[in-house]
């Protein structure tokens, strides 16, 4: 057992980074930026708490990339211009000073847009809206907006916007970016046959549906120095559809992972309800197991706790482990498990009525022990 413990808590080389340990703060939307999309002091305190709490790597909340249709939520941070970029710099510095690395998650909301201060028309891969209802946790919105299917000009615009945002993330001092291709946002919609029924070059089999993402990884890779990480987050499920499966199943997913590797991705971050859920059609491996077997640097996520991290650490000896709900409940999760201290469960009241940092802090004040 001691060997495993040393492995999880000791320094590790991962992608282009040297990390203090294998624990990662998973990306969490906190809708706490200024209304103009600038990150602020409250967010700096928030991220610094996790760095001081022992997480080796932090992945930020999904951040929008342009002043068109990428913003998804009110008070979501952006990196769409110089002021927004500069607003991230003190956060990066405070996290670095506390000894952790920090990666920016880049997110285009696509059809899942709930609020956007530049437009009321989301762009998507088709007219298809997400299943279910918008998330109250991220602001009031009763119904999904009508979606405009992207035309060729918009494919170029989105590609350029992503690449420009990657460069700005590099300028702001981040250690890398994570392209958000999970949970039903635009890049995930390209892959999903629920959304993507296009008959042109961007639709059809997995090769066509993955084309934009593979082009994006290559373009992003060549736009910044080699020591800057370009990762991607992948899921089948979305925030409102926990059953979706790629029709190409395990074989198709394995193909995608191999192509991403060829395209030069620094890491793949899988997310599912549970790290080891055998969720792929016609397969007996989880998303994480496929990535591990192909041999791409891997971040696992989904249901990791104080009770299973050792077992998972053994099963995925080279992977990082990303935690969301447990981290939110215990910003010092890493210190706690290391010291054998009590680890709490998340009380969802902390995120009510909206999942912002202000409500979290109020909850903490009321529930201080
Ligand atoms: C409040 C909240 C906000 C989230 N926001 C994001 C996000 O911005 N980007 C993302 O990829 N996942 C987001 N997620 C999903 C988490 O990163 C994670 O995949 C999920 O909670 C499962 O991991 P867990 O079992 O450790 O909580 C969010 C989750 C929560 C609870």
Describe this structure in words.
Mean pLDDT is 96; it is low at 1-5. With 369 residues, the protein is an alpha/beta fold. It has helices at residues 2-9, 41-52, 82-97, 152-171, 186-191, 206-209, 211-221, 249-263, 287-294, 309-315, 325-329, 333-338, 357-366, and strands spanning 12-14, 17-19, 23-25, 57-63, 101-106, 123-124, 148-149, 176-183, 229-238, 267-270, 298-301, 320-323. It contains 13 helices and 12 strands. Helix content is 35%, strand content 15%. The structure holds flavin mononucleotide (FMN). Flavin mononucleotide binds next to β4, β8 and α11. It holds the Pfam family Oxidored_FMN. GO terms for molecular function: FMN binding; oxidoreductase activity. Residues 13-339 form the NADH:flavin oxidoreductase/NADH oxidase N-terminal domain.
**Shape from CA axes?**
globular
Distance between the termini: 32 Å
* Bound ligands, named by name, code or SMILES: flavin mononucleotide
Relative helix content: 25-40%
How many domains make up the coordinates? 1
What is the alpha-carbon Rg in Å? 19 Å
Largest sheet: 8 strands, parallel, barrel
